[in-house]
Write a structure and sequence with these properties.
With about 575 residues, the protein is an alpha/beta fold. Helices cover about 45% and strands about 10% of the residues. The strands form four sheets. Strands 13-14-12-15-16-11-17 form a seven-stranded mixed beta sheet. The longest helix is centred in the last third of the chain and has 19 residues, at about 440-455. The N and C termini lie far apart (about 55 Å).
């Protein structure tokens, strides 16, 4: 059995700032950790160093993160460093364990059942109010309930929050539905995931013996991705701490991309004022990306609140790697963009880059189809991260089924009108919904089917179009391990690749059209920053002028800020002149 490393060994491979963070084992600590700066290394070595020096009893340390995957990675790393007794969990897992333990003592009886999904109960709440809501609206309703609860708002306070409502609902109906949902849940003795946090906080706040036991169990806290903490999670953390100050938070305000779900970077940004005695360490040495990519990321976030200035660290990039500057290319339409990106990826693979080291990132799921098809035509395998494949989406399945039915029925209408009638019957309109959410995602999927019909041309028969859809679906089989990754930028957070292609960088896509105010635009900026910082050696940015019926898209406003040193891509047959000319 391998001997765990001693304290000196734990510090030996850390840089100066990481070592400072690791040795700050007492009191409040704030690690401002930029993209690619080795924050997980700093977190795990800090905890392991505290255990190795006897400062931390392992069973009294709680490391908190936001996904089960991240918690599992922390546990595995800590075990290798000799700190296997440390608890590493999500906020929900920690709260659920405490709630299950204390419920019989405080409330009595068996703890209520946890709802796996809100959808079915929300549907029943709608029926109780004699409302008929589609699945997408129910998903948006669930998201609003989650936002309200993690924001610690009552229904009366929510009514004053000026939230954008799903198209089928006004504020009055939204409030009635949320109340009906809560009533049904109480009648059936059920809790949802947000209730787990709320109930745990309520027990600690109202029951001194519960607070005493919880605070006796865990003395030292570490919170990863602190920029993503919600008001409810922050409140629960304060209850866990009590009047103690032994907490280390780690985050990067520039990577706050979940504000729509209630996350807020304000707790990270105000940490030094909340804890004036705190040790603040800035991790700004980027070990992931090449200097030109780091420079591009810095330029995008320059002068933004809380933004860190990254500095390339030589050991993060292979010494033999070319220092290729990010490029920008513009194409006439989405399919031309997809085909050009596919050919570029094919050339990379031919030159020796592994497919699994390449990713195509985009803003919305529906953008994946064109790229997946173009890569499939070239025999390049793909895998989609973080979302169902396009042809597995319920609305797409329904549209394809209806189109197949039209073929069987011998519908004589022109292709475009037939497809338009089908997608309109499923809720598609010429104008996109203003708000984000499941209704907008559904519209994007149906709009993609319209675009495919338009691309096929007026002379294409309905049968040929349906056969083409079937072929596209069939070529999206589960990929082999050697596959190019397709992912939304949200799903790509925390991942990295040698080569990244960021597509669809136009107004209306990034920033997305429903980003209506300055705060929402800044979230879109941070999203692009996350996409840029996923790349190690190569970064290609592109956009298209739109679908054939419009062709009036404009380049993303963010591209203009990168123009000073981001050169145009070399011209290809599929691209036209890029909008910027790089300057040295």
């Amino acid at each position: 059995m391998n001997q765990p490393p001693g304290p000196d060994a734990l510090l030996s491979h850390l840089d100066e700032e990481q070592r400072e963070a690791a040795q700050a084992t007492h009191g409040a600590v704030c690690m401002l950790a930029g993209a690619g700066t080795g924050k997980t290394t700093a977190i795990t070595h800090r905890i392991a160093y505290g255990v190795a020096t006897g400062v931390y009893p392992p069973n009294r340390v709680m490391a908190l993160t936001f996904t089960s995957k991240s918690a599992g990675e922390l546990r595995a790393r800590l075990a290798r460093l000799g700190a296997g007794g440390v608890s590493a969990r999500t906020f929900h897992a920690s709260a659920l364990a405490q709630l299950g333990y204390f419920w019989p003592q405080v409330i009595g009886g068996v703890m209520p059942r946890i709802l796996e999904s809100k959808g079915r109960l929300l549907g029943q709440a709608a029926e109780r109010l004699r409302l008929r809501l589609d699945t997408a609206t129910l998903r948006d309703l669930a998201a609003e309930i989650e936002w309200r609860k993690v924001s610690r708002l009552s229904l009366a306070e929510y009514a004053l929050a000026e939230r954008a409502m799903p198209p089928q609902l006004d504020l009055e109906r939204m409030l009635d539905l949320q109340q009906a949902y809560e009533d049904l849940k109480d009648e059936r003795r059920q809790l949802d995931f947000e209730d787990v946090l709320l109930a745990t906080a309520g027990m600690i706040e109202s029951e001194p013996r519960v607070a005493e036991q919880v605070r006796e169990q865990y003395r030292f806290f570490v919170v990863d991705e602190y920029q993503d903490v919600s008001p409810l999670q922050h409140y629960l953390l304060q209850l866990w701490l009590g009047d103690r100050r032994d907490v280390c938070v780690v985050g990067d305000a520039s990577q706050t991309i979940y504000s729509f779900a209630g996350a807020s970077s304000r707790f990270l940004l105000r940490f030094p004022s909340d804890y004036p005695e705190a040790t603040v360490v800035r991790l700004e040495r980027n070990y992931r990306s090449s200097p030109p990519i780091v420079d591009t990321a810095n330029r995008l976030m320059r002068d933004r609140p809380g933004a860190l200035v990254l500095h390339p660290a030589a050991r993060g990039v292979r010494s033999a790697s070319p220092q290729e500057a990010p490029s920008v290319a513009v194409y006439d339409n989405d399919m031309a963009e997809a085909r050009a990106v596919a050919r570029a990826i094919e050339a990379e693979i031919a030159a020796g880059r592994r497919p699994q080291d390449i990713a195509v990132l985009y803003r919305v799921n529906s953008q994946a189809l064109a790229v997946s098809t173009a890569l499939g035509d070239l025999g390049v395998s793909t895998r989609v991260t973080g979302a169902a494949r396009f042809f597995e989406l319920p609305e797409v399945k329904q549209a394809v089924m209806m189109l197949k039915g039209a073929v069987v029925g011998g519908v004589p209408e022109p292709l475009f009108k037939t497809v338009s009638d089908v997608v309109r019957s499923l809720g598609w309109t010429q104008e996109a919904p203003e708000a984000r959410g499941a209704v907008r995602d559904r519209w994007e999927s149906l709009n993609t089917i319209m675009a495919l019909a338009e691309e096929m041309g007026p002379r294409t028969t309905l049968r040929a179009f349906v056969d083409d859809l079937a072929h596209r679906a069939a070529t999206q089989n589960e990929p082999t391990q050697r596959a190019v990754t397709l992912a939304t930028i949200h799903a790509a957070k925390g991942l990295e690749w040698e080569s990244v292609h960021l597509i669809g960088l136009s107004e209306g896509l990034l920033p997305i059209s429903y980003a209506a105010d300055e705060e929402a635009i800044e979230e879109e900026r941070r999203l692009l920053y996350v996409g840029i910082t996923r790349a190690r050696e190569r970064l290609a940015l592109s956009w298209s002028r739109g679908q054939q019926r419009s062709g009036d898209r404009q380049p993303s406003r963010f591209l203009a800020e990168l123009r000073s040193r981001t050169p145009d891509a070399p011209p290809t047959r599929a691209s036209s002149a890029a909008p910027f000319r790089g300057r040295s």
